[in-house]
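pipeline/complex-builder :: batch 7 item 3
reading input block
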Amino acid sequence: MKLSTLLASAALAIGLAGGAYADDKTKVGFVYVGPVGDGGWTYEHDQGRLAVEAEFGDKVETVYVENVAEGPDSERVMTQMALDGADLIFTTSFGYMDPTINVAAKFPNVKFEHATGYKRADNVSTYSARFYEGRAIQGHIAGKMTKSNIVGYIGSFPIPEVIRGINSAFIHAKKVNPDVEFKIIWAYTWFDPAKEADAANVLIEQGADVVLQHTDSTAPQAAAQEAGNVITFGQASDMGQYAPMPRVSSIIDDWAPYYVARTKAVMDGTWASTDTWDGIGAGMVGIGEITDAVPADVKAEALALKASIADGSYHPFTGPLKKQDGSDFLAEGETADDGTLAGMNFYVEGITGDIPN
Amino acid sequence: MDLSAINPVLFVAGFLIAATPLIFAALGELVVEKSGVLNLGVEGMMIMGAICGFATAVETGSPLLGFAAAALGGALLSLLFAFLTQITLANQVASGLALTLFGLGFSALLGQSYVGIKPPRLAEVNFGPLHDIPVIGPILFSHDIILYLGFALVVAVWAMLKFTRAGLILRAVGESHDAAHALGYKVVRIRTLAIMFGGACAGLGGAYISLIRVPQWTEGMTAGVGWIALALVVFASWKPWRLLLGAYLFGGITQLQLNLQGAGVAIPVEYLAMSPYIITILVLVVLSADKSSAPASLGRTFHASS
């Protein structure tokens, strides 16, 4: 009896000491779907984490877990982070949506931030970037530069985020090249270099001379380089090591300002559940340098398109547009609202093939 | 739908390449398991081979030296496993899992300065006029030497297990280490050699991904091939030819489903994506109806005193 009391009070003392220690540092956790060295999506999130460390120095402590499978296993990782005293946890993949909500319900005092999802709670914010704005520019360059009129697209999972990107790229490729055709392969993975390279090779063998990817590694770039005469775009990160060919431009995610601001909000006690969706204008989506492999006039058009999206004078989803089945989507001059974009589950007219369920 | 978009010659060439890493890794594990050891560290040894091979090929400019280094790297890592399980008699399952975790982490550390570099290319074997035969030439006679080595290794392992004294001893150790020990065979030494062979093979398989199939270095790039190799050994009932068939089936159907998706075939993509796993398992399960079973001493620790 005495022993157990002693143990209990010792445990309590340790717990209190631990709590006191945790209080003077803000602990920020990150859950990653791939390795930090993927050169793409996860790499950029980790750059954001490093920016938080650089900004606040020893006032913050950051922790991360990489290669966390989407689904139940991620719940275990988040729970562990929360138990270890994290004040703020960023979960950086779509598939962490339900696990984040579940874990957040158990830890009401811990703030959660889920990337690219749409479910929120009092202690769960969502944030994402308007990648489709960058896809519009890629689509424009792809439509102008393809000689075979076949553009390959490596999709990861059929979620609104990816479908939006396909639609945006297709609309703008079609606008400058009515004969363009998209071949879409779903890889059903965010990160599997061998499979991504295989998918790129198959697309190239089937005639594609432009390959767009919505997966995280640089493997499709390597495959395109090997094949020669194929152009690609950096995804999530600049992937500048494959410039000037095959990588002719890129979409760069810049999470650093957001991560710094949200960490600051937790420190100041001003954190509130929000939904952030920023694009080129706010700087969350960057367009990597367009290389000299792109003709000067096409480059100028692409930059003009970028400027018009950035200042808000042009929306990539502007009517008239029809859905794949021929029904009306947007009337002349109408632009898509955020609700429609966030839940987009259909192709626009002209794309062949079905979206997997 | 446009099936004419699929070029059958490129398709077959593609799936031979996709299957090769799997053949190496699974064949190595087959020999290890035949000796009665279960090494779950295939993934870790593959990724070590991938980085050792990549780094050496980039530094020396020779892909063949890269493959040699990959085999060496895989074998060295497997020595750690051999030490843990054969000398200190640690649990094989736990040691294997630890090996995978260690390999993934250590390779990421080694590979930090190799991200985004293009490795030297391994030339195709020159078959002279054979290469110019229509259809058969590009399918069979236009690959790199390592791909043929993978096939040759299957034949060699099959012949070794079936016809040679060494193969008989290896199987004896795997079936009953006590009996083999009583006959005077050095169980620990034989198993250590088998483990090193498995490590070298896994290393070659990993390097085939980083030097030929992708070709680049990315952290964690084997992305689960090692686990598929482990499953393949079981489904192939520890038989080299079935293992080869399974690897070709898996690689072939993976490649086929990507091709069908690209061609816009009207089969739902979900079914296409899971087909490689299901068909490979089904075929091998049907084949293994002859009740061939695992080596009897598989996974059991051995000590001469027991």
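note: The CA atoms of residues 147 and 194 of chain B lie 22 Å apart.
queue -> next item
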